[in-house]
Amino acid sequence: MFKLYYMSMCAPSRAAKIILNEKGIKFHSINEPVWQRRIEFLKINPEGELPVIIDNKNNKIIGYFSLAYFLEDNEDQKNLVGKCPLSRLEVRRICKWFDNKFNYEVYDNIVEERVFKSLKGHGNPSSESLKAGRVNLKNHENYIEWLLKNRTFIAGEFFSIADIICSAYLSTLDYLGEVEWERINLTKKWYAQIKSRPSFRDILEEKLFTIPASKQYKNLDF
After folding, report:
1. Which of these CATH numbers, 3.30.230.70, 3.40.30.10, 1.10.540.10, 3.90.1150.10, describes 2-74?
2. Comparing C-alpha atoms, which of 108, 217, 88 is closest to residue 162?
3. What DSSP designation does 150 have?
4. Chain segment 50-61, per-residue pLDDT in tens
5. Based on C-alpha coordinates, what's the Rg of the chain?
């Protein structure tokens, strides 16, 4: 059985969990609060970042993106990275967008502030960061909406890790009630399809002790 070093509300960790579920791979999740800098975890991944996956042969796979490509090369299962060079190029571009721009402009300013800051003992959320994150979120929502005007999925006419990482990030914001779904109808329709997939069920069952989920978080018909 695979091992997944994971943290609730960590979007890349959620993406890794969805990928494993999509591939039908059994795994055991291990909660890893990375700010504690556990020596045992740093021996596995000196970078100290999540997710980390260990397969049945004790191979260490760092990150959801590496996981998807590793499984593509080694598992005869569903394709999640694109079947031709141009498709894969667009998938990589979208993933890079979320891992860098969206993460820095939105996730760090909202989820990091509202969820992880207090867990790390760094005080209360910054109102300035929250304000900036919410303004940036609308801009990113507009971009996703624009993409979906001419596409069924985020990177084209096929379900891929681009959809997985986008939905992973949006799910953390949806949990906190930060997404105004009625403003972005195409994105709402797309997300409803994604959250209805069996691979997403584990994500919808996640809970925080300190913050309850928004009313629509688990609702498939929202």
Report:
1. 3.40.30.10
2. 88
3. S
4. 999 999 999 999
5. 17
